[in-house]
Amino acid sequence: MNKRWSIERIREFVEKNSDSKLLTMEYHGFSQDLLFECSCGNRFEKKFKKFKDNHQRKCEVCQPPKASR
Question: Which domain of life is it from (predicted)?
Fold first, then answer.
């Protein structure tokens, strides 16, 4: 089943699955960077797919990037 994500559904997902807050007001597709505010107060941008599928749900200070192999 193909899910269509709206900004409202994304906001609901973020609220239920992370301590971050979605600041972006419009969603134009999977290639768009969304603006979030981490629980520490830092703002960061991520594509929703990375936020959702890769569990990258915090800023780079709270969740540093993994070292490349």
Answer: Bacteria
Q: How far apart are the first and last CA of the chain?
A: 34
Task: Give the 3-state secondary structure of residue 33.
Answer: strand
How far is 23 from 19, CA to CA, in rounded Å? 13
CB atoms within 10 A of CB 7: 15
The residues pairing with 22 across neighbouring beta strands, listed in sequence order, are 36
Question: Is the separation of the CB atoms in 45 and 30 below 8 Å?
Answer: no
- pTM of the full structure: 0.86
Amino acid residing at 41? G
Give the position of tokens 């979030």.
36
